[in-house]
Amino acid sequence: MIMKYKPYSPEWTRYRALEEAIYEYLEDPDTSPELICGDIRDVLEGWVNEYSSRAEKGKVLQSFFK
């Protein structure tokens, strides 16, 4: 691993977690690039939906303070 970040810093920890997740995908012989990309897309889509829903609820709540 190339040391881009100070060991055990939050940035290093995130990088390490990402590196390990990618490694796990690549070690599985049944994993295709399409599956990896699809999983990443699904995770991101889930986050967008989750945070969009939270934002909408926040807007409704905010309207009561006007």
Percentage of residues in helical conformation: over 70%
Estimate what percentage of residues fall within beta strands: under 5%
Q: How would you name the oligomeric state of the polypeptide chains in this document?
A: single chain
Q: Mind summarizing the main beta sheet?
A: none
Number of E strands? 0
From the alpha-carbon coordinates, what is the Rg to the nearest angstrom? 18 Å
Span between N and C termini? 52 Å
Structural class: mainly alpha
- Residue-averaged pLDDT, rounded? 93
Listing every helix as H and every strand as E from the N terminus to the C terminus, the arrangement reads HH
Number of helices: 2
Structure description:
It is a single chain. This protein is mostly helical and 66 residues long. The chain has a domain at 30-66. It is built from 2 helices and no strands. The chain has helices at residues 10-27, 33-63.
List the main descriptive attributes of the protein structure presented here:
2 helices; 66 residues; single chain; mainly alpha; flat
